[in-house]
Design a protein that fits this description.
homodimer; 574 residues; alpha/beta; Metallo-beta-lactamase, Chain A; Rossmann fold; Ubiquitin-like (UB roll); six-stranded mixed beta sheet; 28% helix; 23% strand; globular
């Protein structure tokens, strides 16, 4: 019997693609004197929890809702009595679904050391400033170094994805090693930064991989994923032919994509203008660390658009998913005061609609076309977008490189997990060695075998959207989809000490008919007031406040109505 | 100035795909006492030749001629005064164009030590028995071992290709390392044997690769090469639907392909019958080392075909290139006494026509169809054949894995070399670091730079075909193609001591009109008699005898007629 055991606990990111947060727990066999003294808490079967390593802490986009508008965070309540065991939080890359939740849970986790690569750290720091109104220290990872976190040893490995500075993490434990292969594709020609560090990946394989955690989102798509750099060529070719404005839209975190568009603009001497809050922010951050160099002479502000000739303009615009209120939607709705769509303009959608968003995206495209723009999107033109996630061959390469004993597909839905099992089988491994987990389902490793462990109870913690203006739209759309339990919104307007400046406002859709349920809502408002009042802490954790309200409201509604509406809380601090 | 220099000398295999033979020459700076004492021979610019390593020694299929019928061997005359420097001959894999010439030149090279992987060694030993009528000792390579050959250090690395036991060779020299990446594809699911040893490949890259020699034959084809194992699935699916005989044709060296067909036959309980000399031979060899296991109960001989029901038969047949006199051609021409094509039979061409062979292959297909067979070939059906050579992505992976300073594309034509340069450029390397060589063009490496060296004069040494019966056919076809200088055949019938049993017979096509040139031919015959007579050695090197005759005849015809016909010599030993 081994002295150690390891338990893998996905607090999120397993099914539903987003909200990534994973725990590696190292347990040590207890001295026989203590054996079985305590069965509860952190002691299990004679093993005692020694070290916890956390990988990623991202927000999630609930499937049934508008992606990119409202979101959820991982439920960290499981960790609340274990924060003294948390040795570090490691981040793989800077996408929202891997970093976005940290400001909401960092205090709850006891502020452990945080490690991330450069751009990831930059995005995290910015997020903290915005969401938690404070600074955070993040250690930039050294790819040459082997870190020790308790009895974990960790190496970061450079890989490629749709955002620079993406890493995999090789986690060594006393009983075997994990290869944490989250979001990646094997891009042999990344437009910026190095190709994946194949030597380090295969070296991990040579040292021995007990379990491979692998991105599985591309497991249905044959072949290798297209290199990010093919998109750059498309930009150049299309820009060359464009007589009016060149307008490109993609995810604002896709710095490589944006940089390729900027480089084409430089080539054709077009001024670069960023539209949309998220786009302006992420490009500013990337510029600051040199990842997005733009000559001053070619940078222009939104207001400058009134005087710039169309053929001297390259707009890079947020809102590729046709999010309500986004810069592109406003442009299509003729709501941008500085610029209009005109014949001769070319709009390039350099991202595919996220499943569920297709209708909105196609409506947006029709709006743009009706105003005379040439619109290119992947249904009609190749090579406008390249997924950041590896297709089947990328995934198979990673398996061959690491040659693991066990597999855990992460970052995909059940459908992707099943297809990943097929790939594993194709490569001659035993499908039974694949653990296709759902959220909270754990796996125990004892150095020889692996088996499903206890399920950790988690729930979705819903967080409000980026801007209050979007709320009406959310409700409207949710009415169609949240058909079983409905949704309840609570708006709080507070001062800096989290004192309510006015009574909370509650409204709902698809839950109960509000006019008939005045008492129910009055009770909910009083509940919020009760929760909000007794706060006297100096640093207000708005995240925790919101979660408290959400938990209490959920219980309250369930007690009275027997239904669990989705509860969304927006705290507006004046 | 470095103490050492290395010169890479391709004696073949650079342009024209086949006839692979490469030299790595290590030169050491001479003591100043000896400096410039000798400018000739093995001393160059104050450097003296110390060690030679030879990689591969294959036959070639001259483009203008029938592939697989007549062939050429590398011209090793450059090495004749350097055999004391040859430390070893290393083989990468068992294809004819990499091993086939050894029996013809081994004596001339001074019988140096030979290293090869298992199947390659098997094929080489067999070749020696057949062609040189003697045994040869071949050391089976150990993939864990680093070999020393003079001041060269060498590791063999497992890769995948269309024949098992294919290797790459990592060659370390005092001034930098070469990665000899001959014929390969990155097959993640090879039907037999391991996937490429990615760790060893990337480790070579980590140790530093001064120059990558890379297969470039697939440099025009996008994507990754299809895995060999997809063809196995096709065999199964097609066999399931076949009511009559299942007939598969491919290259007889493609043991993996053949094994997959055999496995399908086992599954559907069909007796396996091999047709054609080369097919019978290579499958026998592969069976002997366990690479092609066939249960006795499912193996049948050609003669058994008369009594086997068609739906119990799986024929694996040589002649996929429609070679004249091959087993498949005979079958289509109703010349096989034991078996006939009938309606319900299915013929699968699991190989693409080699460029230049298309007409013959299509004629053969029509013959088969007209007799009622269903014929599947890659124009009409996918996944019947997978190239053994890496496509663009395979080639790019190898570049990323090894990250070389210089590049030499090998095993392709000029067109493939140029396309390989494009790939190198795509990956952000300087195209000028690519040396696209033609045969005999050398490259000097001094540890810092690389530059084109002196050109070694080589010529094609033509060897007769596999069987004398084919000769008439060769001539017939060559009349169309050898239009400038024609071709001359010399047939010698000798005893075991190489004594002529009758006067040599000479005939030609496209050279001069024989009836008007009786004297010319009489002179040639006398010349052959002269060369053949004074042999008194115990061991007769027929290869050398043929080359002597070829060289002398070429000179003779040129002196008298001012033209250099291709000279083909067939020695029949009774």
């Amino acid at each position: 019997m081994n002295k150690y055991k390891v338990r893998f606990v996905p607090l999120g990111g397993i099914v539903g693609v987003t909200k990534n947060m994973y725990l590696y727990e190292l347990y040590k066999k207890m001295d026989s004197n203590f054996f079985n003294k305590s069965k509860k808490g952190n002691n299990l079967d004679g093993y005692s929890l020694q070290d916890i390593l956390i990988v990623d802490c991202g927000i999630g986009f609930p499937k049934e809702k508008d992606l990119g508008v409202d979101f959820v965070i991982p439920d960290v309540s499981y960790l609340e009595d274990k924060i003294d065991k948390i040795r570090a939080i490691l981040f793989t890359h800077g996408h929202e679904d891997h970093i976005g939740a940290l400001p909401y849970v960092y205090d709850t986790l006891g502020n452990p050391p945080v490690f991330a690569s450069k751009l990831t750290a930059m995005f995290l720091e910015n997020k903290f400033k915005q969401e938690a109104k404070r600074n955070i220290f993040i250690e930039i990872v050294n790819f040459e170094k082997e870190y020790s976190f308790g009895d974990f040893k960790v190496r970061f490995i450079r890989v490629t994805h749709s955002i620079p500075d993406t890493t995999h993490i090789f986690i060594k434990t006393p009983i075997g090693n994990f290869y944490h292969g989250s979001d990646f594709k094997l891009d042999l020609t990344p437009p910026y930064g190095p190709a994946p560090d194949f030597y380090q990946i295969t070296k991990a394989g040579k040292e021995g991989v007990m379990c491979l955690l692998s991105d599985c989102l591309g497991s249905e798509r044959p072949g290798l994923t297209l290199s990010e750099s093919v998109v750059g060529e498309t930009f150049e070719n299309e820009m060359r032919k464009t007589k009016g404005k060149f307008i490109m839209t993609t995810f604002s975190s896709n710095i490589s994509r944006i940089r390729q568009c900027v480089e084409a603009a430089i080539k054709f001497n077009r001024k670069v203008v960023f539209l949309g809050r998220s786009m302006k922010e992420s490009t500013k951050l990337a510029s600051e660390i040199g990842y997005l160099p733009i000559p001053d002479s070619l940078f222009a502000n939104e207001e400058d658009l009134v005087r710039l000739p169309p053929n001297k303009v390259c707009l890079i615009v947020a809102g590729s998913q046709a999010q309500y209120g986004s810069a592109l939607t406003k442009l299509a709705d003729k709501q941008n005061p500085y610029v209009k769509i005109m014949p001769g303009d070319k709009v390039i959608f350099s991202s595919d609609p996220i499943p569920g968003n297709e209708n909105e995206v196609y409506e947006l495209i029709e709006d743009l076309v009706s105003q005379g723009a040439d619109v290119f999107y992947s249904d009609i033109a190749d090579q406008l977008h390249s997924s950041g996630h590896g297709n089947q061959e990328d995934l198979k390469f990673l398996i061959r490189f690491t040659n693991p004993k066990f597999f855990i597909p992460i970052g995909g839905t059940i459908r992707h997990q099943k297809q990943y099992e097929v790939l594993v089988d194709d490569l001659g491994y035993d499908k039974k060695k694949v653990f296709s987990l759902s959220e909270g389902e754990t796996v125990w490793f004892d150095g020889v075998e692996a088996r499903l462990g206890e399920k950790i109870e988690t729930k979705n913690i819903y967080i409000d959207a980026y801007g209050v203006g979007d709320v009406g739209n959310i409700v409207l759309r949710d009415r169609k989809t949240i058909s079983t339990d409905g949704i309840v919104f609570a708006i709080l307007i507070v001062d800096k000490n989290a004192m309510l400046l006015t009574r909370p406002k509650i409204f709902s859709r698809g839950f109960v008919y509000e006019k008939d349920e005045k008492e129910l809502y009055e009770g909910a408002i009083r509940l919020i007031e009760k929760i909000t009042k007794p706060r006297e802490r100096k640093v207000i954790d708005f995240g925790k406040l919101k979660r408290d309200i959400i938990n209490n409201l959920e219980d309250y509604f369930f007690k009275i109505k027997g239904r669990r509406p989705m509860v969304v809380v927006e705290v507006i601090s004046l």
